[in-house]
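Quick log. Single chain, no ligands specified.
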Amino acid sequence: MPTTQIMVDVTSFFGVLRSPIQLLPDPFPEKVNINLYVKRDDLLHDTVSGNKFRKLKYNLLTARAQGNERLVTFGGAYSNHLHATAAAGKIFGFETLGLVRGQDYAHRPTPTLAFARANGMQLHYLTRADYRRRADPVFLAQVLDQHPGYFVPEGGTNPLAVRGVAEIAQEIADQLGFWPHNVVTALGTGGTLAGLVAGFAHRSSVLGICVLKNAHYLRQEVATLLERSKTTADLHADFDILWDYHHGGYAKCTPELRQFMHHFEQRNGFLIEQVYTAKMLWGVYELAKKNYFAPNATVVVLHTGGLQGRVS
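-> predicted structure:
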């Protein structure tokens, strides 16, 4: 199928590709001196959610243009990326293969893995030791020799993902009528942050709130993505990464974070989740109280979806 037709299919899939932007007039337990907006990418689709579709968009178009019929990717047992890739494969007619961290999950599938399987994804379970080798070119070549197809890295993060995420910048500027002072996202693999840096390109300050513990290597990951995406001018763009709001590490959730999440949802009338968006919003709240942002700054936070992983 020609790439132009796939693009029509993508547009028709979402109806209107732009997600809404929403002002939160009083989002937190106490007043803060910023104007907070949320870019509601959680509303793009119910299964190919948030930043995952933006990351997959040009990968899907490229896979189809190259004549690939199967998507091959990595993910954990609760991976939003596996969930979204399985759903997108079913919608667009790709076979999908998920290489899952942890052989023990073969006998106790999570809801995420059950959803992926129900949507046609073949699951192959790796030992944790093998999974740690997922970025090793030799290991990856062996995997793709055994399981040929179009390879999408863990989290969907590659230069094509950066291109897809970068489109958010102009959407936000068009919706607001100006470039915001600050844009904030949760940071997991680096693709979304790199895309925002590329898209805003000095016009807004971009901040990543890391949801992993001991993940300072991600700064280099973001730089590498920008280099590979031919956006080297953006390597010195106005962006930062903060590391102290992970609440114990990836997918960890403290009682304080859970309470904050529930209070935020009650005050603002929509759901978030504890792995990414709640941690990012907690960070924004703490930073605003410390006057990290300029007085009355317009701050846009990205709701990256992932509500399939929400735990009450």
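The chain has eleven helices and ten strands.
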